[in-house]
Amino acid sequence: MTAKSSNNKSQHIAFFAGSFDPFTIGHASIVERALKLFDAVVIGIGINPLKTSEVETGRRAKFIVRLYENDPRVSVLTYTGLTTDAALQAGASCLLRGVRSVKDFEYERDMADINRQLSGLETVLLYSLPEYAAISSSMVRELQTFGKDISRYLPE
Hints:
Layout: E1 13-18, H1 25-34, E2 40-46, H2 57-67, E3 74-79, H3 83-89, E4 94-99, H4 102-119, E5 122-127, H5 137-145
Parallel strand pairs: 1-2, 1-4, 2-3, 4-5
């Protein structure tokens, strides 16, 4: 899939990368809030051959595309390789990350430093809303594995 946004450098485009397996209400909250700060958000679904996924990448992308089909400011693409390379190709002016905890913050700080060195892109961190801080894709996958209803953790 390709980004719908133009690669116009005068636009402030945030690149929100992840595996999104699955895309949760916490992810959706970050996108919503980022749209108040940026002209557009490109959701980049990274394909990591070292990771196994519950849901095939194309299906995850289609779900997110459908979720934002009425908002031209949001686009979705899948990519392999470095996130910074995909972000630059998408015309992003920064990387966007969500932070749920101090543990997330420390990891994201280190990644932001490396990504800035590699590409010059800054990373903008948005803290999770308190009601979403415990929600992670891995937690949702685990609940699903044990047959629990996960619908309350996913966007409608």
